Fold:
Amino acid sequence: MDTALEPYEPAAAPHVVRLWNDAIGGVFPLREAVLRQCLEANPSARPQDGCLVWSGGDRLVGFGYVGLHRLPGPETASFRERGQIQAVVVDPAFRRRGIGRLMAHSLAERAREAGVQQLEAGGGMFYLWGGIPEDLPGATAFAQAIGFEIEDTSYDLRGDVTGLRTDDASDALLRGLGLRVVPATAMDTPDALAFLLAEFGPEWWHETAWFLSQGGDPGSLLLLRDAADRILGLARIHRPDGRPIGPPHFWVARRRPGAGGLGPIGIAAEWRGQGLGRALLVVALDRLRREGLTDVVIDMTSLLGYYGSHGFRPWMTWRNGRAPVARVLEATAAERGSSR
Structure:
């Protein structure tokens, strides 16, 4: 088979988008801006983290991408211990020829070279998928065949908030505690980031810090503040024209006009259990509704009952999988010589 395995390069982005959409675009319609954001705007990414398989020198038939975290800060040190296989996509006409396993082996080698011992299926930083997509036939079986054990499940939820309004109970709760929900300003961002790191750890902190560093609108962060101006909660809303593109809008071609998004959202630990999470959620959804963004996606959650009470239902389902790098290398080793 006349194929060649090469590292990703920006000039190949249109070819990757064509391959992706020919192969799986009916379920996951990829835009070039999303691809470039995840692979090229990612400060941790290197060209060798992506791999391309060409046939005949000019036809792209395979694309893979492993997410590795290389930032030096202590806040995200734990993320340097694991990597994520973000995608393995093969041209339907070239499947069952070992190309997927070849790419998986190359990605696992890349992870091992970076000192990573554990791989996850999707998720992490700058992910294209939140896990193994249940909507793709054969995806879970392929992950298991290359050494992944399937664990828990998470979801992207979708709901119509056309009829949603802030309710008297939420308003009364906030007023009674002297709290208000206000959009953040540029001056608020250091405090907002400190709140996220202290209350929710490095993942939300890193995601929000990168969003703001790339020119993201601070006003998309809604802050729950008390009378002393302390931040007690935060919700991020996503607008269709927002940049960088938020995960709720990665697959926006499958949605109707008026697409909005929400997440992350959370309340400080000492203030939980009083209904403030619900109040903040309702205020954030109502703000999206008032902006005309009634088709709302909440990404990467397992709280079906909580969000279900507001009309949200599973839209995309992600199976979370993990595997030692060594096991993936062993499971895919026989395929190394199948392409050149």
Q: What stands out?
A: Confidence is low (pLDDT under 50) at residues 335-340. The domain at 162-309 is CATH 3.40.630.30 (Aminopeptidase). The longest strand covers residues 149-160.
